[in-house]
Amino acid sequence: MSGESPFLPDASATMEVSPQAVAKWIHLPVDQRPRLIDCREEDELAICQIAGNEWYPLGLFPGVREKLLARNERGVVVYCHHGVRSLRATHFLRSIGVGNAFSMQGGIEAWSQRIDPEMPRY
Questions:
Q1: Residue 108 in contact with residue 50, Cβ under 8 Å?
Q2: Burial (CB count within 10 angstroms: exposed 0-12, middle 13-18, buried 19+), residue 8
Q3: Considering just the CA atoms, what is the radius of gyration of the chain in Å?
Q4: Residue 79's closest CA among 23, 29, 13, 3?
Q5: Spatial distance between the Cα atoms of 21 and 31, rounded to a whole number of angstroms
Q6: Phi, then psi, of 90 in degrees rounded to 5
Q7: From first to last of its 122 residues, what are the pLDDT tens digits of the chain?
Q8: How far apart are CA 104 and CA 81, in angstroms?
Q9: Which domains does the chain have, with CATH numbers?
Q10: Quick one: three-class SS letters along 3-64?
Q11: 107 SS3 class
């Protein structure tokens, strides 16, 4: 459950969080906000990324399981390009016990449209 984070919705009600919600806390110090994980590939990361993210490509999630299980008290938000891979990542995280994991709806594409129009798009 995400009851420990004032920034995230009820995990039993949804698996997604809006880019607008993420924008409200992204500039807080890392130890005061949910983790933000970019699950895209390296070539996508080189084009654009949201500052303060941790990078773990979705295909590597099983191999970095212990890292993914750490420091989740304030919740986890995963993003990708459009929100499809991050939703799969959220399912994976919840399946290994990270109950307060969420996907950023619409991915970095939605972020670039709604939050940071200067961000390069692809």
A1: yes
A2: buried
A3: 13
A4: 23
A5: 18
A6: -65, -40
A7: 434 688 999 999 999 999 999 999 999 998 899 999 999 999 999 999 999 999 999 999 999 999 999 999 999 999 999 999 999 999 999 999 999 999 999 999 999 999 999 999 99
A8: 10
A9: 16-114 (3.40.250.10)
A10: CCCCCCCCCCCCCEECHHHHHHHCCCCHHHCCEEEECCCHHHHHHCCCCCCEECCHHHHHHH
A11: helix
- For the chain, the residue count is 122
Strand partners, 102: 77
Residue with tokens 């295909």: 59
- The token pair at 54 is 């941790």
Would you call 78 helix, strand, or coil by DSSP? strand
Collect all residues with Cβ–Cβ distance below 8 Å to 111 and sequence separation of at least 6.
19, 22, 23, 50, 79, 104, 119
Q: How far is CA 103 from the centre of its chain?
A: 6
Q: What are phi and psi of 29, to 5 degrees?
A: -55, 145
Q: How far is CA 117 from the centre of its chain?
A: 19
Pick from 97, 89, 75: which is nearest to 9 by CA?
Answer: 75
